[in-house]
Amino acid sequence: MLSEFKQFALKGNVVDLAVAVVMGNAFSAIVTAVVADLVMPVVGAVLPGGDWRNATATPLNLRLGHLLGAVLDFLIIASVLFIVVAKVGQAWAKRGKKGEPAPVATKVCPECRETIPVEARRCRACTSVLVTV
User: Fold this and answer.
1) 25/92 Cα distance (integer angstroms)
2) What SS3 string covers 95-128?
3) I need a labelling partner for 92 at 20 to 30 A (CA). Which of 7, 35, 48, 123 fits?
4) What pTM did the predictor assign?
5) What is the pLDDT of residues 20-34, one digit of tens each?
6) What is the 3-state secondary structure (H, E, C) of 2-16?
7) Contacts by 81-86 with C-beta closer than 8 Å and gap 24+?
8) Do the Cβ atoms of 72 and 43 come closer than 8 Å?
9) Residues 119 and 129: beta-carbon distance below 8 Å
10) Are 116 and 123 in contact (CB under 8 A)?
11) pLDDT digits (tens, 9 = 90+) for 58-90
């Protein structure tokens, strides 16, 4: 059971997921700082003053201010994420384009139609000898 757990824990997908969670946490800190330090002061200057987030309605004490505040926070964070992810991602993609296609890494065996590496001299599926050109 320990060896199965070790195999599972060191599998590429699990390690990739762990890295993604850590990177997502770090990215969350950046987004939170941008929203809190840059966006919310502007929003605070535009919105009416007072304690509007604690506003209630009706005798049932429906917390409409809290709901509107949560919706506003979501929209602001979603906008910042869109700008950062979409626009910066587009700029990064433009930077990475060179116009050259990636070199071909595989070919098809003429006997069994199995995909094999370009450097292969023998097919791993049917063991036929491949002619190199």
Assistant:
1) 21
2) HHCCCCCCCCCEEECCCCCCEEECCCCECCCCCC
3) 35
4) 0.46
5) 888 888 888 888 888
6) HHHHHHHHCCHHHHH
7) 81/31, 84/30, 84/31, 84/34
8) yes
9) no
10) yes
11) 888 888 888 888 888 888 888 888 887 888 788
- Joined tokens for residue 87: 């626009």
Domain segments of the chain as ranges? 2-96, 101-133
Distance of CA 4 to the CA centre of its chain: 29
Place of tokens 């320990």: 2
DSSP, residue by residue, 9-53 = HTSHHHHHHHHHHHHHHHHHHHHHHHIIIIIHHHHHHHS--S-GG
Helix or strand run (H / E) with residue 89: helix 88-96
Q: Are 80 and 70 in contact (CB under 8 A)?
A: no
